[in-house]
Design a protein that fits this description.
Elements (H helix, E strand, L loop, with lengths): L1 E2 L5 E3 L13 E3 L6 E2 L1 H22 L5 H19 L2
Antiparallel strand pairs: 1-2, 2-3, 3-4
């Protein structure tokens, strides 16, 4: 294993935790699962969106656009996982 861009550890010994694809896999900080490039980007985005939705909600701001983006992302991840 070695660290790649943004200190994500890379390994290619198993399959993606979301889509099941056998490809180069990436670790995300504080996550035990390993993901392919596409899934790791979507998981990282979902983590960020969740944080932003929570922050906006706590500040009393409208988070509907962020929630809609999160719903689209979730649908894409679900479709990818079901096609595995």
């Amino acid at each position: 294993m070695f660290c790649g861009p943004d200190n994500f550890e890379k390994t290619s010994t198993s399959q993606c935790s979301v889509c099941g694809r056998h490809s180069e896999l990436f670790d995300l900080p504080d996550r035990p699962e390993k993901y392919c490039l596409a899934c790791s980007a979507d998981i990282a985005t979902s983590i960020l969106l969740t944080t932003e939705i929570d922050s906006a909600t706590l500040c009393g701001q409208d988070a509907s656009r962020l929630a809609a983006e999160f719903a689209e992302l979730s649908t894409r991840l679900l479709a990818r996982s079901q096609s595995a």
